[in-house]
Please model this.
Amino acid sequence: MLHPQVAASLAIRRRPSAEVLAADPYEQLVFARQAMEDSNEAECGPAIPLPVVVDVDAGGVPCRLYAARVGAPVLVYVHGGGWCYGSINTVDRLCRRIADRSGCAVLSVGYRLAPEHVFPAALQDVETVLGWVRKEGTGLGVDPSRLAIGGDSSGAQLATVAARRQRDAATPLDYQVLLYPAIDPMTASESYDEVGGHGLDRASMRMAWEAFVPEPMHRFGPDVAPLAVEDLAGMPPTLLLTAEYDVLRDEGADYGDALLTAGVPVVHVRYAGVNHGFVRKLALFDAARAAADQIAVSLRAALTF
Model:
């Protein structure tokens, strides 16, 4: 059953006027970006204070470091937003809560957005940050020898592609956290038809994929479509969270099944009654706070060895 908090959450964000809807697609995107930023406080709530919250330049990529103690393991976090919007600020409250509850440092990545910067720009930025934190982390007071990656939606796609590339480069990551990941450029799963009326639908996801990877022939390689990878063995142990009323629900589950088939330890939790994007909305969803704390507990167990 759809939770009443879903309807309340959908009413928060400013909707485009008829004039905006009649404008060109880029103007609509600019509106959507600003609307997400404007609703951030109402959706995500107050900021948890931490000993360290500092903006850093990670090899040319803007990032924000959150840490509650010296020598903490690190989660590199990649925000969602269809590769086209979202920011360090839109996941600030979530990153703070994860850092506070887990004891791990969180490094949130401000990667370049499409359509101004198309594939592979965002992936390159994530990989730059991973290399930077491995090199500079000790000087920042964190422990880069214990390194995880995570993200939500399009950010989860970037995170798991980067994790696979790190595996292939013989620099594997210790853990990955994937929140309702965008996995399938074909948008072919049944959940698009079953639950497409709750804030995300097939048309908007197709637009996002096309903005991120405008060249169709590039959408089906392993650096874009995680299920195109021939062998997923050796991927990091994974926490996968999906939402019952999310069009990305089934492709996320399919990816979890593929990881399990390859021998990768996976914990997949489907949160009932909620929709896409719920986890960052800590002020609106009871399930968001539970999910953030589940992430924190899993990181503590995986990285504080």
